[in-house]
Structure formats: structure tokens, C-alpha cells
Amino acid sequence: MSLWRRWRLLGAGREALLRIRKRLDSLARRMSFVHFLLLLAVAQGFWYANFVPPWWNYDEPRHFWLAWTLTRGDITRREKKRVVRSLLNYDWFHHYPRDMWPSEKDVDRIPSLMRPTPRPEGRLLYWRIITLPWYLVPASWDVAWQLRILRWMTVLFFVATAWALWKASQEFFGKAHPLSRLVPLFTVLLPGFAEPMSLVNDDAGAALGGTLFLWASLRLIRRGFRWDRFLALLAAAWLAQAMKRTTVPLLAILPVVVLFSFRWRWRGVPWVLLGGGALAVLLTTFRWGDPAYWYYDRPWEMPLRVPSPQAQDGEWVFRLPPETEMGQWIPRAVYNSYPEGAEWVLSFWMWAEKPGEVTLPRLCVGHATWGAQLKGQDCTPAEKAHLSTEPRRFQVVLPTIQGDFPRVEFPPHDAGLGMVYIDDVILESPDGQRHIIRNGSAEAGWWGLNPWFLRFVPGWGSSPNVALAALQYPHIGQVALYLEASFLLKTAWGFFARAKIPYLGQNVVYGFLLLWGLVGILGCGMSLVRKQPPCSGATTGILIVGLFLVLGSVLLFPLGRLHASASLLTWFRYAFPVIFPFSALLVSGWYHLLGPRRAAWIVRFAAWLNLLAVWSIADFFYPTLAGFGYVLLLVVGSWFPLEAWRRFLLRDDHIH
């Protein structure tokens, strides 16, 4: 082909692209923003739902099993074989050792990640909705296609959430403000939100319920109390809690919303009532008297620290109820300074209400891996001993086990012994240093959570109390919080296919995203100080409190599992109920720093990040030329529409 002909073809292609852009500009003038937003959500959702292979979302095999039991009863051995065959076809077990792979003849070796977990009946609304098409689909269909149907139904939640984000943005920023369009558009394009919202998990329901609840809250505050608005708020609250329990912390702002919805003659009344109510809640939520530095794994009405005439060192002793574990962490820096196998000596006084046999304390160590995952734990062998009703001094030798979260624990005892009492616990390191155990005689008290609060949040158990104990240790709580927060930020921007696929060039990309996010937070703080956002202090405060309530629970709940062989993974999908204030905080900060004329770069940034996400997924699943062809098609198909909508996003005459 001659050079002249190539030049003519290039010119013809350029003219064709310009004609496409002009037609898209013409379409933009005729279409409302919400129509464009919903179409983008549909395209984004179906792209990820079909681009990521089946089973590759977090716990999707388990979710499939749960959906099956809800609609068709217990899954049979024949169906298990079909699922295993499909998992093998899509290479789901590639991260397991080869000897752990199940076969169709040995389906009982299915990993625990495939087995459904019991869920409260009141939190099954998402599953009831997405499984509706299954009543029309024969069970003999390919299981991968049945899973795709569940994904397509989840995309409907994504689209509905995009609409709720638009309504909440309009209520918060005002219909005429560009942020009312930038916030929902950025959120829909955010890969860390779009990918999980297009795959099978009930976090999509939590995102919809939480966003609707925040929209109803903002509407009630800004427009004033009216019974229909109040009933809409209650309906949104019920919908949110029926989706998933991650929305429960957000619902704590409901009485505050109602308080600020009334038009008080004196503006200080709601703030005085709010302060008094917050103080009353704190005083009734927390109780004094739990032993400092110690954790226990079950909520009990009675405190574990009591005065006793049998105390051997001081006036207080530990009282351990039946079937309860109590423990304390060892400072990580001190523990890891000794080689594996070095012997620690633990001595203590111990007695019981009734004579009997008990398991003596042991040493357990958790192991942290990549991200923020706690990979099991190792414990020293447990020894048995006979207790009497009189205090007796025991001594246990505990060999060192290498790990990241070391602790000494008193295992649960049988109920036949009644209460077991412990006093003067001393841990001696291999070099003879004593008193590594803090508060070994229960002399120091600490704040704990009242059992009524723990019953209010079912499923949490004593996790908040364990978290409070961990936070007293800089070498334990801070390390765990760092691991959790780092993984939380990564999954917020995007960490795909159950955290198996990071962005290409992850070290540079995640570092830049961290700095860019901090810039957004800084800009938001500056705009609040200058009182530039078109919103009242009450509505801004409501969103900030809701954001911190949910993010706080997301961080503290896994921290409370340090004492067990559990995961510390803090996925950002657990914070989806507050996706609106999260996006509003970042986008408003960037908008404040960039200014209205450069605000379209926020959308371009989200679009480019989305393209990088698709490229990263394609590089993992489709490493051949076809995989890069998908990315190339997406680049050509998305750049020009975004350019066509660039001016449309910031024009007031397109507000409908």
C-alpha cells in the first residue's frame, strides 16, 4: 500500500471519528444526565459481569450454593460434581496446592470456601431477589450460566444504586451544582466499586440499601419533618438492614436525622439534645471493671475482675466463667527477639469453686501473610492439671513459636468446675526478664462493652472487647490496623477477582492512588473550613458520622478476631453502605482544588483507572492477543463518548 493511500485512509478514519463525536454531542443535547448515568451503569455492570470468568468473585461458589439451597433445597452429590467440574474448567483451584484439588469422584474434598454459611432469615432480601429467575430456569442448565444469571440480576442493584447516588447527590449538593453529576459518575466508573457490584455478593444489596437510607436522611433534614418523608426513612432503614448486617452501624444515625429534621426556634436545641444523648449512650454502652490488657471471647454479664480474700498479690483476682477463653498478647518486638524453641516460663495461682480437671494455659501465635490475612495459628501442646478450691501455684514451660501475633491464653474449662479464679500471672522470658504479662493480678481496671450492646449487634460476639484489648498494645493493635487499612485502601481503588489481580504496576499505581486520595481529603477539609459546599453543617456532619461509623466497624470487627484462627481481610465492599459519602468526600475535595474548569479531569481519571483495571484483568485471564484486543476495543469505545460528554457534565442546561 502506498504512502499516499495510507494517508488518505488515516484522514478518512479521522473524519469518521469526528462525525461520531459530533453525533454524540448531538445526543448529549437531547438526553438527560440520569439517562446517560444509568446507561453507563448498565454497560459497566454487564462488562465486568461477563469479563471476569465465573466463580472468580470472593466466595462465589459459596454464594451459588446458598442460592441453590434457598430455591431448590439441599444440593445433591450429582450437583456438587457439576459444580466441581465447572470450577476445574475455569481454573478456580489454581491457588490451592495440587494435592488439595477435588475431583468429581471425591467431591467431599471441596474447600470450606465453597460451603454456604448460615445467614439470619432477616438478611436474605438480596438473595430472594436475585434468585427469582431461577424459578424459570431448569436446574439442568450449565451451572456457570446459572451463576451468570445471578450476576446479571446483581447488575440491576448496581444500576439502582447509581440512581440512588444521583438522587442523594442532588439532595446534598443541589440540582444546579456540578458535583451532583460528578459524584455519581465517578462512583459508577470506580473499578473498586463497579467490579464487586457486578458479581454475586450481598454487598450490592447493602450498597443500595445504605445509599437509599442516606438519601432519605438528607431529604428529611433539608426539607423538614413530614410523616411521608419519615415513613420513607423507616422503609429505607428496614431495606438496608434486610440486605446485610454491614448496614447496621449506619442505622445508628437515624435518631440524629429525626432530631435535626425539626425546625427548632432556637438552633442550639438539637445540638444540646444530641450532646446529652451521645453522653448517655456512651455511659450505658461502656462499663468499668474489665481487666486491662486482657481479652475474653464471650460476652458475660459479670465482670472478669473481682475483689477476693483469696487474692495472693493485691486485692483483685480474675474470675473466668465456664466455656470462656481469656488471654493477653505479648509485645511483638520482645517476643521475636528470641529464637524459636527458646523456653518461656509462665507461673500463676489458680483455683476453682469445685474440684476438677482443667487445661493449663498455652502459648498461641498467629501468622500474617500478604495483604492483611491471618494465616492460621500455632499453639503449644495443652497440659491437664487438677484444681482444688484452695489457691495453688502452677508453672508451665512454653517453647517459643515464630509468628506475628503471640499471646498467652487460658483455655475454656468445663461448667462442672463453676468459676475458675486466677491470680498473680507472671511470664518470664528466656533471659529471665519478668512481668512481661501486664496487670497479672487484675489490679488495673479498664473499659469494656456492656453485654446489651453486644446483643444489639448479633454475630459480633466479644470482638469489640478483643479489639479494645488489642488497641492497648502498640506492637499488636497498630500492626494489625496497618495491615487492615492497607488492604482496605487497595480494595477501595480496585483489587480484582477476590484479591488475586492487582493493577499492573501495582507498586506505583497504589502509591499514586494513596497520595491522590489524600489530596482529595485535604481539599475537602479546606472546602469545609471555607464553608464552600452548598450544604448545611447538619447534613455534612450526618454523612461524616455515618462514614466513620461504618469504616470504624469494618476495621475493628476483624481486629477483634486476632485471638482466633481467622482472617483479617478488611474488604472495602464491607463499607459499600457509605459509598456515597466516601465518593462525595474525595470528589468534592478534588473539585475544590481543580476548580470548575478542570473538573472534567475527575471523570477522565476515573475512566483511565477503569481502563487500567480492565487491562489488568485481561492480562491475568486473557494473556493472548485476544485479551489485549478487548482492552483496545474498550479504549476506542470509551474515550470518544467521554470526550463527547465532557462539556455536558458541567452544563446547567442539561439538568432535568
Brief summary of the model shown:
The chain is an alpha+beta fold and 656 residues long. Helix content is 51%, strand content 12%.
Across the major sheet, the strand order is: 2-5-12-8-9
Mean pLDDT: 79
Number of helix segments?
A: 22
SS elements, strand count: 14
Percent range for helical residues?
40-55%
Report the major sheet. 5 strands, antiparallel
User: What class would the helix/strand composition place it in?
Assistant: alpha+beta
Poorly predicted runs are 652-656
Percent in strands:
5-15%
Distance between the termini: 51 Å
Bulk shape: globular
Kindly provide the radius of gyration, computed on alpha-carbon positions and rounded to a whole number of angstroms: 28 Å
Describe the protein's architecture and organization:
The structure is a single chain. This protein is about 50% helix and about 10% strand. Helix 7 crosses helix 20 (about 580-595), helix 9 runs antiparallel to helix 10 (about 225-245) and helix 15 (about 465-470) crosses helix 16. Mean pLDDT is about 80; it is low at about 650-655. The longest helix has about 30 residues, at about 145-175. It has a 5-stranded antiparallel sheet with strand order 2-5-12-8-9. The protein is of the alpha+beta class and about 650 residues long. It has helices at about 5-30, 35-50, 60-70, 75-90, 125-130, 145-175, 180-190, 190-195, 205-225, 225-245, 255-260, 270-285, 330-335, 450-455, 465-470, 475-495, 495-500, 505-530, 535-560, 580-595, 600-620, 625-645, and strands at about 285-290, 295, 305, 315-320, 325-330, 345-350, 355-360, 360-370, 375-380, 385, 390-400, 405-410, 420-430, 445-450. It contains 22 helices and 14 strands.
